[in-house]
UniProtKB/TrEMBL annotation:
Pfam families in alphabetical order: LRR_8
Presence of the UniProt keyword Signal in the record: yes
GO CC terms: extracellular region
PANTHER family according to UniProt: IMMUNOGLOBULIN SUPERFAMILY MEMBER 10 (PTHR45842:SF2), SYNAPTIC ADHESION-LIKE MOLECULE SALM (PTHR45842)
Superkingdom: Eukaryota
SMART domains: LRR_TYP
Keywords of this entry: Leucine-rich repeat, Repeat, Signal
InterPro entries: Leu-rich_rpt, Leu-rich_rpt_typical-subtyp, LRFN, LRR_dom_sf
Name the UniProt record assigns to this protein: Uncharacterized protein
Length: 101
């Protein structure tokens, strides 16, 4: 769990070897953007908690390949808009919590 730290950025492919990781909690950090390859390799991810960061931008391809993702928490960020295709490839996603858009 990487919750409540002072993480400002996530390197591309930082999690690429964690194919079995199901829950990623990075809430209450200082992340400003989610790049195209940020979550690459998280093939088993089911729940993603990125709420209460400082996210201003999410690359529309950031969630490509996350076919098992079901829950995305993004509330409490600085998002002004999301590209219409941001979540288009997610087949199983059921809950999106985005309150700042």
């Amino acid at each position: 769990m990487l919750h409540s730290n002072t993480i400002h950025s996530i390197a591309d492919r930082a999690f690429q070897d964690l194919k079995s990781l199901q829950v990623l909690k990075m809430s209450y950090n200082r992340v400003k953007e989610i790049n195209k390859d940020t979550f690459q390799g998280l093939e088993g991810l089911v729940r993603l908690h990125m709420d209460h960061n400082r996210i201003e931008f999410i690359n529309p391809e950031a969630f490509y390949g996350l076919t098992t993702l079901q829950l995305v928490h993004l509330e409490g960020n600085l998002l002004q808009q999301l590209h219409p295709d941001t979540f288009v490839t997610l087949r199983h996603s059921q809950v999106f919590k985005v309150s700042s858009v």
